[in-house]
Structures are given as C-alpha cells and as structure tokens.
Amino acid sequence: MHQVIQLLGALLVLAGFVLAQRRLLDPRSRTYLLVNLVGSAVLAVDAWLGAQWGFFVLESVWAAVSAAGLAGTVRRAAQTSSSSRRTEKGNRQSSSASPSIVSRHS
C-alpha cells in the first residue's frame, strides 16, 4: 500500500507538470496548483515517515509554494467577485435614477 500512495503522489505532480508543458493546463490555475499541492504533500509525508530528509525538504517546499499560489488565486477571485458586486450595485443605482439626474451627470 505504501508504494501505491507514493506512486499516486508522484503521478499527481507529474500529471500537472506534463499538462502544463503541453499547454493544456495553466500553471497558475487552481487545478494545477491543487494537483501539485496534494501530490507533493503526499510525497512529503511519505518522505517524513521514511526519514528521507532531502526528499522531505524538496516536497515540503513544493507543497508550500503550491499552497501559497493557491491562496493567491482564491484571494484574487474573492477580490474580483467583490469588485464585480460593487460595480453591479453601482450600475443598478445609476439606472434607477431619474433621467433628469442622469442627463445632468453625463
């Protein structure tokens, strides 16, 4: 079972890399970052349990960088969503104004 878990982690990391190299997956996308995060985290845990410190450092840093990138995409999406809601609210308010007010401000 140990080998299966290790292979699944490696396949996740490699799948993201291959798809990005073939331009089928954007390396900044949530999918790519999530695949890398999960795969590298699995491998980091495996390395820790096996006392393979060099491999542990490599995979831990890979997971941390992927997590930071993923957090950035979530944060940007939240900001974009918030900005869109403010714009929609502003558009509704200006469209509900009387024509005379709108013409004076145009």
Summed up, what is this model?
With 106 residues, this protein is mainly alpha-helical. The protein has helices at residues 2-21, 30-49, 53-95, 99-105. It has one domain.
Give a structural overview.
The protein is about 85% helix and about 0% strand. It is elongated, with a radius of gyration of 23 Å. It has one domain (about 1-95). The chain has 4 helices and no strands. It has about 110 residues and is mainly α. Mean pLDDT is about 85; it is low at about 100-105.
Total number of strands = 0
Secondary-structure element pattern, one letter each: HHHH
Judging from the principal axes of the Cα atoms, what is the shape? elongated
- First-to-last CA distance: 69 Å
Q: What's the number of structural domains?
A: 1
Stretches where pLDDT is under 50 for at least 5 consecutive residues are 98-106
Portion in beta strands: under 5%
Please describe the biggest sheet, giving its number of strands, its sense, and whether it closes into a barrel: none
**Mean pLDDT across all residues, rounded?**
85
Task: Indicate the structural class.
Answer: mainly alpha
